[in-house]
């Protein structure tokens, strides 16, 4: 360090240059060269460096502003999408509930219609049974009546004379005619 200060102090004492040569003392020449280079750089490069730094600063600020605007836009878009999602979810729930309600209504309607059809079929069956039963009863009555009539006629024919026979037949024809009118 003493050599550095000695070189600055002894600038006025340099002997006249007898020959041209290089100073090989690194400690003496480097600080001088560095200070000259730094001085020149600071003097001439200050404006360029300031402009470069200002431009870089403006680009960074613009990027930050753009990023902020993009972030705000993304947040707004996200909120719109969330709002729309909530609306769609509510509509889906409503459709789901309406669908379930509609299914339940259709199920109840189908059960009611089937029950009504079964009741009608049961009524038709009962009516058919009553009709067939009544028809069978009427057939049996007619057969019993015909057999009884034939038996009575046979007995009468063997026991009665022709005039009594004629009155009995007339009375029976009248009874049969009255019975026929009642059954029709």
From TrEMBL:
Q: How does it sit in the membrane?
A: Single-pass membrane protein
The UniProt entry's GO CC annotations, sorted and at most eight, read: chloroplast thylakoid membrane; proton-transporting ATP synthase complex
User: Coiled-coil intervals in this record?
Assistant: 64-98
Q: Which GO terms describe its molecular function?
A: proton-transporting ATP synthase activity, rotational mechanism
Q: Does the keyword Cell division apply?
A: no
* Iron listed as a keyword: no
**Mind telling me which InterPro entries this protein's record contains?**
ATP_synth_b/b'su_bac/chlpt
Please provide the record's keywords in A-Z order.
Answer: ATP synthesis, CF(0), Chloroplast, Coiled coil, Hydrogen ion transport, Ion transport, Membrane, Plastid, Thylakoid, Transmembrane, Transmembrane helix, Transport
The protein's matches in Pfam families, at most eight in alphabetical order, are given as: ATP-synt_B
Query: In which compartments does the protein localize?
Result: Membrane; Plastid, Chloroplast thylakoid membrane
Which residue ranges traverse the bilayer?
Answer: 32-49
Protein function: Component of the F(0) channel, it forms part of the peripheral stalk, linking F(1) to F(0). F(1)F(0) ATP synthase produces ATP from ADP in the presence of a proton or sodium gradient. F-type ATPases consist of two structural domains, F(1) containing the extramembraneous catalytic core and F(0) containing the membrane proton channel, linked together by a central stalk and a peripheral stalk. During catalysis, ATP synthesis in the catalytic domain of F(1) is coupled via a rotary mechanism of the central stalk subunits to proton translocation.
Q: Which family does it belong to?
A: Belongs to the ATPase B chain family.
> Subunit comment for this entry?
F-type ATPases have 2 components, F(1) - the catalytic core - and F(0) - the membrane proton channel. F(1) has five subunits: alpha(3), beta(3), gamma(1), delta(1), epsilon(1). F(0) has four main subunits: a(1), b(1), b'(1) and c(10-14). The alpha and beta chains form an alternating ring which encloses part of the gamma chain. F(1) is attached to F(0) by a central stalk formed by the gamma and epsilon chains, while a peripheral stalk is formed by the delta, b and b' chains.
Instruction: Reproduce the miscellaneous comment text.
Output: In plastids the F-type ATPase is also known as CF(1)CF(0).
The protein's name is ATP synthase subunit b, chloroplastic
Q: Which organism is it from?
A: Dichelostemma capitatum (Bluedicks)
């Amino acid at each position: 360090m003493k050599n550095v200060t000695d070189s600055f102090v002894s600038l006025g004492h340099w002997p006249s240059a007898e020959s041209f040569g290089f100073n090989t003392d690194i400690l003496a020449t480097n600080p001088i060269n560095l200070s000259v280079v730094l001085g020149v750089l600071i003097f001439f490069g200050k404006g360029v460096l300031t402009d470069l730094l200002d431009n870089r600063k403006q680009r960074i600020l613009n990027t930050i502003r753009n990023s902020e605007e993009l972030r705000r836009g993304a947040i707004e878009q996200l909120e719109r999408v969330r709002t729309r999602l909530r609306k769609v979810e509510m509509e889906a729930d409503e459709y789901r509930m309406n669908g379930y309600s509609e299914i339940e209504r259709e199920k109840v309607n189908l059960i009611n219609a089937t029950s009504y059809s079964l009741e009608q079929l049961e009524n038709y069956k009962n009516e058919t049974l009553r009709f067939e039963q009544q028809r069978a009863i009427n057939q049996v009555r007619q057969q019993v009546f015909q057999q009884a009539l034939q038996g009575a006629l046979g007995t009468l024919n063997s026991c009665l004379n022709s005039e009594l026979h004629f009155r009995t037949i007339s009375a029976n024809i009248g009874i049969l005619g009255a019975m026929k009118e009642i059954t029709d």
